[in-house]
Amino acid sequence: MHMVTALLGAYRAEIGLILLACMFVAFLRERYPASVVAALGACAYAALGLIDEKGLFSVFANPAPLTVAAMLVLSGALIRTGTVNRVADLIMTRAQQHPRLALAEVTVGIVIISCFLNNTPVVVLLIPIAFKLAQATNIPVKKLLIPMNAVAVMGGCITLIGTSTNLIVAGIAAEQGMEPIGIFTISPYGIAGTVAGIATLACLSFLLPSDEPSIGGENGGTVQDYLTELVVPHDSDLVGREIGSLSLFGRSVVLLGLKRAGEIRRGDLMEEELHAGDRLIVRADGTAVMTLRESGRFELGIAADSETSSHEGTVIEAMVAPSHPSTGDRLRDIPFLHALRVRIIGMHRARHLPGPDLADARIRGADRLLIAGSDDAVRSLRDHPHLMGVDISRTRAFRRSKAWIAILSMAAVVTFAALNFISIGLAAFLAVGVILVTRCIDAEEAWSAIDGDVLVLIFAMLAVGMALEQSGSVALMVGWVTPLLQVAPTWSLVFVIYFFALILSELLSNNAVAALMTPITIALARQLGVDPLPLVIALMIGASACFATPIGYQTNALVHAAGDYRFADFVRIGVPLNIVVGLAVCTTLVLLN
């Protein structure tokens, strides 16, 4: 035991590096999630005494991870209030009117939105837009998805709140004694990289595949569309109005037909006047269905009993089991619709929309149903032997009336942080308080918007970084590298840090790379006697602007699946994009510092 203690004392720095190498191998093998590897690594450093208890728990005082969490909640509020969805609808309207011009407008819009919102929800919303734009412009969708994702990633590198990586680096840098990095400090360098990247994408689009995705479907599999019917009540003020005047239809709600007196009409119906009892056959995503239900302007779906309202009771989701005895029958003929006071308000079928209308759609195994009913009816459906996964629907209606609060809250965070009134973290936390107390988003939804996996990874890697400092591993690495870099021109350090961070982030989690490299970069700058800020910014952007692999950035994986891309598709366009963006960012850093 005494010998082990002596070895740990004599070779602390070397043991720290050996543990780090083991973590890198575990990251690359991907046998366990990155957060698990990071947490186990932090535990190993603590168990070996390479980080003391005070140092280990001090990482939870770092404001960066909690600022990331607060910004995720604010992004969730903008989605919950329908703000982001409304922007997407406007984009689609423009695409239908001016398809080619819309591509340029979408590109600019993506850059602006990504400056202030987390890229992941932005890309999730962009995927169905890319499929619609492909239809409107006759451009293969595979030539749109990767570029849109790349533009979103580049836009996130323009401000400090654009990505969680930026906030992590800034938080660690502040703890290391650097001056706080402002929200727009990195903007000139991010803009240079974005402009160069967009130009590269435009010139090298021929490298992208043009075949159709074999699994993506109409919206890339990211949106669950339902077939439903909107029934015009007899006492409605909508009677006599033209369908096109409803301001109802867009990306989320698509008119498929009009059912009147048992006859279904198709085609251009926007100038058709509504009659009492008309049924508008529409395709809508789950959130749109719930929003229409809460609006109270229409009765939704079908029911055996006309007194059963879609506005009352609870909405549940249920999947039809393959063994259901009514498989192949029309939806209006299924037994529980007549036995219970329920109303079917939506029907979803994977990669295919049922029809011709909701009542006459034929049941298939794995169909998903949205059902509104009383508590007693819901309990009966839970016990139904041929329905699977019966549970209260997690889909919520938009709270559009609260959109202005969410927008002003986000704008206040940006403004106060930009003017240095208060820190970004404090501004974000105050904004979270505002959106919670005003019910822009419920507490349950707010906490679900926080990616716990990301937070665990960040906290664990902060602990690993501190352990490397306390054990002397950072000093040891800096000592190895310093003689090599002392003979190199000062400006070359920016390029070395940027591309080293880029290569690591193409293989590992960019947040882990950022948390690990920040203290090393700052220590190296101080050892060489140079300003650490340009190197920290190079690390910040290099760890995020990764385009050459589907695992280089979290949104890369989303478009990889949605577009049915191959690994080589990312490499072909991503490698030159990495080089051009990196050269633009680094050159601007050298020239302006």
UniProtKB/TrEMBL annotation:
SUPFAM superfamilies (UniProt xref): TrkA C-terminal domain-like (SSF116726)
Main location: membrane
GO cellular component, as recorded: plasma membrane
GO term, biological process aspect, one: potassium ion transport
Highest rank taxon of the organism: Bacteria
Domain RCK C-terminal: 215-298, 302-387
Entries under Pfam families matching the protein: CitMHS, TrkA_C
GO molecular function: monoatomic cation transmembrane transporter activity
Location of the protein in the cell: Membrane
Entry-linked InterPro entries: Cit_transptr-like_dom (IPR004680), DASS-Related_Transporters (IPR051679), Na/sul_symport_CS (IPR031312), RCK_C (IPR006037), RCK_C_sf (IPR036721)
Bilayer topology: Multi-pass membrane protein
Transmembrane segments: 6-27, 34-51, 57-80, 101-131, 151-174, 186-208, 404-437, 449-468, 532-553, 573-592
Protein name in UniProt: Sodium:sulfate symporter
Taxonomic source organism: Sphingobium baderi
